[in-house]
Automatic annotation (TrEMBL), chain B:
The keyword Transmembrane helix applies. Keywords: Membrane, Transmembrane, Transmembrane helix. The chain crosses the membrane at residues 46-65, 94-117, 148-176, 196-217, 224-241, 279-297. Residues 1-21 are annotated as: Disordered. This is ABC transporter permease. It comes from the Bacteria. The keyword Transmembrane applies.
Length: 335, 304
């Protein structure tokens, strides 16, 4: 529960006078409180989840397979009734306000599901017809636009059962893009895609985010989250381990100071004097946990000690480092 | 609605947290249209209808071969099941309609309905499409009503397929004209056609109970095949139980018990007693199992 204060839905403390145009709930697109799901048979799939997704963010929802991500998404979409706790989406309670909320949410949940005997286009027409707020007069144009957006315009007339996994995935995405949405919930959107397809999806996500759509992206691929997300939450075994801005999360697991120098021994000594911990010498590379003080001072100290410095960098911690630091275990451990 | 209205409403909706886009109530019917199209474009649905259409053809050809020498078919009064329409076919092709309906109603028609109804929700669940319909959001009650309406439409379509096929085969292979009712009176061909249509409608209505039962079973499981098999299994069980004399106290509550009462429409005057009982029983089944399906479907966790 890294930063509940910055983005939480508790409005009173947040200068209410200054933003008269904004309504309550605008700044948290998804907010859950103590959200819990225990399946029949006693398995606790989600345990007291307090999740806050700020508006306009690209929110990465991370966790190994079986950590409760999909159950959480299903509760947010009104498909599963929570055992206890509450969930608000677009400021309204779910699943009670499904009819109001869901037309403004596009979702890809646990992979695409299609009618194999219908063409890709007819699949989209059907999903669009299921939305009572979708205007039938613009249906064909919107379907064509969605197909075009995911690169399926040419294959729209083909039967969906002839689609490859990547094409099905794209068609699922197209279904989520039939209407302008305020929130997109994408569960493992790059599954089954080749590297080129993955890149296209990432570009698409960035495009949508720049249009102001909040994107909630679940994945078990850390680098994917790191590449596109502004915020992230990490789940393991049904619990939320942390959430916050990606930069802050990565900063939590601090980076390493790397000094490249032919005078490795001297450098290591000076770094220790400057308060760096865990100094490791590897030929001409000296790495260390950076000290608290200004790194410019550290560099000056090195130079003053006549250490010939070739490179002096702070290697940013990756989200993976953050995850390992938080859980003390590898990421791919299934829950 | 003018363009200005649309703009005003979309603008009003966009910033508001409770506002939706401005849907017309008629748009809701889009799902029904889509559902009908989807159901009747399925290869399985068409195969079922083709089998049903083939039954009158087979009966007609069999009767034609049997009576090819000009004799009428075996003297038979009211043979084992249902009315003795079959002996009349060679005199009047219209009787093939009644014969075909009497032949398909005990098993073929309800089996076809059981397959379509059993698959209605469970098939979507096993394909995973149910979750996307629900997040669209189709709305659980609306989806269930749409599914039921579609199954009823299939009941009607299936019955009409049998009737029309029988009518065509009958007119092709046998003479048509005035016909004699079960009571022995003579009615014109036009009125005979009217009665045939009425009978087809009553037969379709007789399937409403099975349809509701199938839909309920369909909400219980995530497997389309299991739901279809269960529904058809229940149908066969009830048909067998309906033949066991010791169960005569229960039999008036079996959905199939009054099915063959449609023959009473061929009496002069029409004998309404069993017909009304049949329709009432179907309405009861629709109400009970419809409510059960609703109670189940609106509270169920969709995990497929």
């Amino acid at each position: 529960m890294a930063e509940p204060s910055a983005t939480g839905p508790e409005r009173p403390g947040r200068a209410p006078e200054r933003e008269p145009a904004r309504e309550g709930g605008e700044d948290a697109v998804i907010a859950t409180r103590g959200l819990t799901k225990r399946y029949r048979g006693g398995q606790l799939a989600v345990d007291g989840l307090d999740l806050t997704v700020p508006a306009g963010s690209v929110f990465g929802f991370l966790g190994p397979n079986g950590s409760g991500k999909t159950t959480t998404i299903r509760m947010l979409m009104g498909l599963i009734e929570p055992t206890s706790g509450s969930a608000r989406v677009l400021g309204l309670p779910m699943p009670r306000a499904s009819r109001t909320v869901l037309p403004r949410v596009g979702a890809l949940i646990e992979g695409p599901a299609l009618y194999g005997f219908l063409s890709g286009r007819d699949n989209l027409l059907r999903y669009d017809a299921a939305d009572p707020t979708a205007d039938p007069r613009t249906r064909r144009e919107r379907v064509a636009a969605a197909l075009d957006r995911v690169g399926l315009a040419a294959a729209g007339g083909k039967k969906a059962k002839a689609y490859s996994l990547g094409m099905k995935q794209r068609l699922g995405l197209a279904a989520a893009l039939l209407q302008p949405r305020r929130l997109l919930v994408l569960d493992e959107p790059t599954n089954g895609l080749d590297p080129q397809g993955m890149r296209e999806i990432r570009t698409l996500v960035r495009e949508l985010a720049s249009d102001g759509t909040t994107v909630f992206l679940s994945s078990h691929l850390l680098d994917e989250i790191e590449q596109v997300c502004t915020h992230a939450a990490v789940m393991a075994q049904g619990r939320l381990i942390t959430q916050g801005a990606v930069a802050d999360l990565a900063a939590g697991a601090r980076g390493r100071l790397v000094v490249t120098t032919p005078d490795a021994g001297d450098a290591a000594r000076v770094l220790k004097e400057q308060g760096a911990a865990d100094v490791v010498v590897d030929e001409d590379r000296v790495t260390a946990e950076p000290p608290e003080r200004d790194l410019a001072e550290v560099n000056a100290a090195l130079v003053a000690a006549r250490v010939r410095v070739r490179g002096f960098t702070l290697e940013r911690a990756s989200l993976e480092d953050a995850f390992v630091a938080l859980t003390g275990e590898g990421f791919d451990v299934a829950g | 609605m003018s363009r200005a209205d649309v703009r005003a409403e979309t603008e009003g909706a966009a910033p508001g947290r409770g506002g939706t886009r401005s849907p017309s109530p008629l748009w809701s019917l889009g799902l029904l249209r889509s559902e009908l199209l989807t159901t009747f474009r399925r290869w399985r649905t068409l195969a079922l209808l083709a089998v049903l259409a083939a039954v009158p053809v087979l009966v007609g050809i069999a009767v034609r071969i049997e009576t090819g020498d000009g004799s009428s078919l075996g003297g038979g009064g009211g043979g084992g099941e249902g009315p003795a329409f079959i002996s009349q076919i060679s005199n009047n092709g219209l009787f093939l309609v009644f014969t075909a309906l009497a032949a398909t109603l005990p098993f073929f028609l309800p089996m076809a309905v059981g397959v379509v109804a059993g698959d209605a929700i469970a098939g979507e669940a096993s394909a995973g499409t149910l979750r996307y319909l629900l997040v669209a959001p189709a709305g659980r009650t609306r989806l269930l009503l749409t599914k039921y309406a579609t199954v009823i439409a299939f009941c009607l379509a299936a019955t009409l397929v049998v009737a029309v096929s029988a009518l065509a085969v009958g007119a092709l292979l046998f003479p048509v004209g005035d016909l004699i009712t079960i009571s022995g009176t003579r009615i014109g061909y036009a009125e005979g056609l009217g009665r045939a249509l009425l009978i087809a409608l009553v037969v379709a209505a007789s399937l409403v109970g099975v349809a509701a039962l199938g839909l309920f079973v369909s909400t219980l499981t995530g497997s389309g095949i299991a739901a279809m098999a269960t529904t058809v299994g229940l149908l066969i069980t009830v048909q067998i139980l309906d033949q066991i004399p010791q169960l005569d106290a229960l039999q008036p509550y079996f959905f199939s018990h009054y099915w063959l009462s449609f023959a009473d429409l061929m009496r002069e005057p029409v004998y309404w007693d069993d017909l009304v009982k049949n329709l009432g029983l179907q309405a009861l089944y629709a109400a009970v199992f419809g409510s059960a399906a609703w109670a189940r479907f609106t509270t169920r966790d969709i995990t497929a």
